[in-house]
Structure formats: C-alpha cells, structure tokens
Amino acid sequence: MACRWAQMITKLSLRGAIAIASPVIARLTKSAEAISITGSQQALQSQVRRLLRSLRSLAMTIVVICCFVYANLCIATYNIAFADDQPQWQEIKGEHFLIYFTGDEKFAKESEQKAEYYYRNIALDLGYQRYSEFWLWDNRVKIYIYPDHASYIKATGQPEWSHGMANYKTKQIASYTWSEGFLESLLPHEIAHLIFRDFIGFKGEAPLWLDEGVAQWAEYSKRNFMKSQVKNIFDANSIMLVNDMMKVDFKYIQLKDVLYIRATLTKEGEPGVVFLTGDELIKNYYIQAFSMVSFLVEKYGAERFSHFCRELRDGKSFEAGLNAAYRERISGINEFQNKWREYLLNGQK
Q1: The pLDDT value given to residue 260
Q2: 222 Cβ partners below 8 Å, 6+ apart?
Q3: In whole angstroms, how large is the CA radius of gyration of the chain?
Q4: Is the pLDDT of residue 197 over 50?
Q5: Do residues 180 and 276 share a domain?
Q6: Which residues, 6 or more positions from 42, have their beta carbon under 8 angstroms from its beta carbon?
Q7: For labelling, which of 12, 70, 162, 302 has a CA lying 20 to 30 Å from the CA of 2?
C-alpha cells in the first residue's frame, strides 16, 4: 500500500514540477534562438545555446531530486500516521482461525473457541465436512477484534449501527470486544457466509436468498425464534412466491414511503397479493430465506443439500441443480414451492 502510494505521489509531483518548469526553460531557449547575431558574434550565440542546454539539464535534475525528497517525506509522514492509527495486535492461533486482539484476552480466547465450534458444526449441518479442510495454515480466517465500537467503526468504515462485518474474498471478520450478539449470532452468521462462498464460489447461479438462508440457519440460538416468525407471515398470507425471491434486488428497494405489491398464495393455496413496505419486504425475505434452507436441510438431509450446492458450484442453474440433487422428490421451482408450503402447513416438520 505504502509503495503504491509513494509511486503515485512521485509521479504526480514530477509531472507537476515539469509542467511548471518546462514552459519557463522553453521560453528562455526560444529567446536565445531568436537573437539575430552575425559575423564574429556567432561563436557567442553557440556558447549561449550550450549554456541554455546545460541549464535545462540541470533544472530537470533538480526537479527530479526535489520530487524524490518530497515523496520520501510524505511516505515517512504517512507511515507514522498509519502506525499510530493501527492497534498493536496480539495473536491467538487456532486450527482454522487467527484471532487478532488488543486488550481483552478472555474475549479473544472465547471468540477462537466459539469460531472453531461453529466451523465444525456448520460444515457438518450443511454436509460440507468432507470439503472443510481449506482453512488451514496460511488459509486460516482472520478475525480482528477492536478494543471498542468507535475504533472498529473508524478502522472499517462501517456505518454507526454496524457491530461486525466480514470480507468474503479476503476471509476476514471484524468486530469489537464484547460486541452485543457477536459470539452468539454475528460470528456464526459470518462464518457460514465464508464457508458457503468457499464451497460454492462466486461464479455459480446461487441466489442471494440461499446464501443468506445458510447464514441465518447457522445462528443456532435464533432458530426457534425464526421459525415462529415464519409461522406468523405464513398465517398472515404474506409469503412471497419463490420466483419473486429469486429476483429481489435490494439496490432498488426503498425502506419507507413506498409500497411493494407481491403475488402470494394463501394458506389455502389460493392466488393473492400482499402489500409490503420496503422494511417489511426485506424482513420477510430474510425470514423466508431461513425457512427455505431449513426445509431443504431438515426434510432431505445435509448430504443432499451439499450435493445441490455442488451442482450450483459446477455451473448448473438453480432448477437443474434441484433436479440433480433431489431427483424425483423436487423436480423444479414450482414443486419446490409446493413442498416447502407443505412443510409449513405441517408445522415445519
């Protein structure tokens, strides 16, 4: 980072200095060349030209030296500021995780123990245990625990309401000491996201609801609560169709002042519509995502779910993946929706 920054400063400074100095030198050269000298004065003209060329070379050398001095001063200042801004990390090494912390070692140790516990259980629940040896040695996930909420927000650039975050491509999780819900909810949620994406990649046709459903399924402490929420929206005839779940794009959803109309099926199976605010639509989306993953895992088992995810990873469409993994049980999106609704009608069993 510092090296790139130095190169940028050097290039910009050099270009700026050359842009300022070059016109001045060019005007001097042009003036000398415009002098009308004849006879014995030609030798003097030649000497002046040589002098101007030397002056131009000298000026350019000075410009380059100044640029490098300026860049090095900037780099030194930047490095000092960067060092001051960063915590002095201590490290705890686990089998699959590296925990970086600054103060409360008890919380850091508990985070490491919980992370290993969630890792094994999530991989087992989702049928990934055979493929879960990719987080070893240099591939371990890094968890950064900042000393307080303010330092976490400053370092990560997250909004004020954030209490934790994960970068799925660099396999890093960040939070702060004794963050509310971190150990019980956010940590398993983000680990599940990382496991899912490591397993399935980013190129397949995995819908967003599947990713979010897996992450919420991993929050063991919330499962009963989430199932009660599913029952509530099902009883209220507010369940969205699976096709709608496949198409939701959060970028275009306004949280307030807009009502969204979605098609639904009542508990009795009759077609209907549901009116939802942006907040309600997002809430229902996440509740349904949890329920749809819960249905696939609980009804048909972790091995079939893992098979389904492998089909998506290998380039199959969502519907083709269902057909391949669940064969005669679920033959497409419509049958998936009908079987899931049966699961809800039977008390999510």
Answers
A1: 92
A2: 185, 216
A3: 31
A4: yes
A5: no
A6: none
A7: 162
Is 271 found in the same domain as 148?
Answer: no
d(CA 349, CA 342) in angstroms, rounded, equals 9
Distances (CA, A) of 222 to 64, 89, 216, 218: 63, 32, 8, 9
Of residues 80 and 219, the one with the higher pLDDT is 219
Domains of the chain: total: 3
Residue 161 lies in domain: 90-199
Residues 124 and 31 in one domain: no
DSSP 175-200: EETT-TTIIIIIHHHHHHHHHHHHHH
DSSP secondary structure letter of residue 135: S
Does 45 score more than 60 pLDDT? no
The pair phi, psi for residue 91, each rounded to 5°, is -130, 140
Residue closest to 182 by CA, chosen among 238, 104, 260: 104
The predicted pLDDT at position 65 comes to 45
The whole-angstrom separation of Cα 326 and Cα 229 is: 27
Beta bridge partners of 259: 277
Query: Using the 8-state DSSP alphabet, how is residue 74 labeled?
Result: H
DSSP-assigned letter for residue 182: I
275 and 253 in a single domain? The answer is yes
pLDDT band at 63 (very low <50, low <70, confident <90, very high): very low
Nearest to 281 by CA among 263, 242, 255: 255
Estimate to the nearest angstrom the gap between the alpha carbon of 55 and the chain centroid: 54
Strands lying side by side in the sheet with 90-93: 90-93, 97-101, 141-146, 172-176, 165-167
Asked whether residue 41 falls in the same domain as residue 155, the answer is no
Confidence (pLDDT) at 320: 92
Tell me the whole-structure pTM to 2 decimals.
Answer: 0.71
Query: Can you read off the two tokens belonging to residue 198?
Result: 């490591």
Q: Residue 168 belongs to what H/E stretch?
A: none
Contact 197, 168 (CB under 8 A): yes
> For residue 246, what are its two tokens?
């496949």
In the listed set 199, 225, 245, which residue is the last one of a domain according to the structure?
Answer: 199
Q: What are phi and psi of 135, to 5 degrees?
A: -115, 50
Q: What is the DSSP letter of 277?
A: E
pLDDT single digits (tens) 115-129: 999 999 998 888 887
| Same-domain pairing of 167 and 109 | yes
Which tokens sit at 342? 């049966």
